[in-house]
Amino acid sequence: MKCFASLKTICTLPNKRRFFRSFAHRNCNCCGSPLCSKLDNKDNLQNIFTTTNDLSSFIDSNPSNPHLISILANNKKWIETTKKNDPNYFENLAKIHNPKYLYFGCSDSRVPVSQVLGLSRGEVFVHRNFGNLVPGNDLNALAVLEYAITHVGITDIIVTGHYDCEAIRAAMSRQDLGLLENWLRQIRDVYRIHKDYLDLLSDSEQRHCSLVELNVIEQCLNLFKSGVVQRKRMEVKEALILKQKNSSDPINIDDEVYPRIHGMVFNPSEGDLKKLTVNFDRRVGSLEHIYGILKT
């Protein structure tokens, strides 16, 4: 039955035809016999879709991959150290997931998100990619954005770039990086928008740092223009207006409307975060008739 459990993980009901085309002529990983022999019998085929097994049967109980031995050993040491310092750490960790912040950052391994932000477990929802981009057609980033706002209930979005960014350097170089060029073109578009300023900078490193900052600002604007952000901000604004009518205490609606969007840059050589000024009213407000999707 273990063979059928293995097949079941790759053979769901909506994908039967694809399964037959892709796997029917291969050998079983468990016993080495042809998979097609297991499909000859109707009862066997039914078992593929109905048999349930303990998921632990899929876990390698004797991992021997030399590239992972140190990782797994480090994990055990971390568990032991963590439990020693806080016996209830993992029990609490399993319960906590109520972050206030959504973080969009670069995949660079030198940027440890929670440590850089000084936040504890469960306080920041994270999405990272090459160059900290948030394009309007990236379903991966948009799914994170939608879930974080609609279901998690985050109130603040932080877009963080970093100096010495390989994505920015690649976008500023005249070279063909294949499929990656489709992604880097979005950074090159940021350069195009600000080329009159960037081209005046004779120092290449200063130009790099400026593009890092401008890229963060443009991603903040992309977020501000997104439908899910517009809808949530309008919903919160209407609720605050109603609350103000029924309250004698003044409410600064502009400051209280969320999700709020913040742009930052991390300096790996010093460890500090720098907050960027993003003037949404000036950069996007005048384009409300273009980007606005809601009637005011």
Describe the structure.
The protein is of the alpha/beta class. The chain is built from 16 helices and 5 strands. Strands 2-1-3-4-5 form a 5-stranded mixed beta sheet. The longest helix is centred in the last third of the chain and has 22 residues, at 204-225. The termini are far apart.
Strand content: 5-15%
> Which sheet architecture does the biggest sheet show?
5 strands, mixed
Mean pLDDT: 85
In the predicted model, the low-confidence regions spanning at least 5 consecutive residues are: 8-13
Helix vs. strand class: alpha/beta
Classify the helix fraction into a percent range.
40-55%
Features:
single chain, five-stranded mixed β-sheet, globular, 296 residues, 16 helices, 51% helix, 5 strands
Summarize the structure.
The protein has 296 residues and is an alpha/beta fold. The chain is built from 16 helices and five strands. It has a five-stranded mixed β-sheet with strand order 2-1-3-4-5.
Itemize the secondary structure elements and their pairings.
Blueprint: H1 2-10, H2 16-23, H3 35-39, H4 42-50, H5 66-85, H6 89-93, E1 101-106, H7 113-117, E2 124-129, H8 139-152, E3 156-162, H9 166-171, H10 180-193, H11 195-198, H12 204-225, H13 227-245, H14 253-256, E4 260-266, E5 273-276, H15 280-283, H16 288-291
Parallel strand pairs: 1-2, 1-3, 3-4
Antiparallel strand pairs: 4-5
Helix pairs in contact: 1-4
